[in-house]
Specification:
This protein has 173 residues and is mainly α. The chain has helices at 11-35, 45-57, 62-69, 73-85, 107-129, 133-150, and strands spanning 60-61, 89-93, 101-105. A 3-stranded antiparallel beta sheet has the order 1-3-2. Mean pLDDT is 85; it is low at 166-173.
Amino acid sequence: MTESKGRSPDTGDVDAVTRAVLTASRVLVGVSARSLTAVEDKITLPQFRLLVVLSVHGAANLSTVAELLGVNPSTAMRMIDRLTGVGFAGRQASPDNRRETLIQLTDAGRRVVDEVTARRRAEIAAVVSRMDPAHRAALIEALTAFTEAAGEPAVPPAGHHAYPLGWPDHPPR
């Protein structure tokens, strides 16, 4: 590759990979949006992420929920209010401190996380099944390297509840 003035030799590769990842991210955003269609009249994508955080982390106070989501407590509170209103999250007094309220996932909220996750997994599997086996192997290698570089944990096998969509119990740093 010919070097352009002021560009390192690998900049072109980085640009090509960046474009490919951005294109693939459009596919994944579409999968994410479609997976929520059954519950879109009840919750938004950010509210769904809160449900996933609660499913991974368990009951947590408002400050912890806000920190795990990377949002302000007032934003987290609005999301929690909406989710408790539709029965996907609940509040309970902390057994350790009666002045503290814990937010927890309800059974209905757990079902939403499980159903949305299953829809996402099925749609991604359908796309991957149309790929040549050699490209699948290369994709595993490339995406594993990509997620490791980002500090993101791997998604567990189907049926495993921890990290249902690959989100850890803390935002990446």
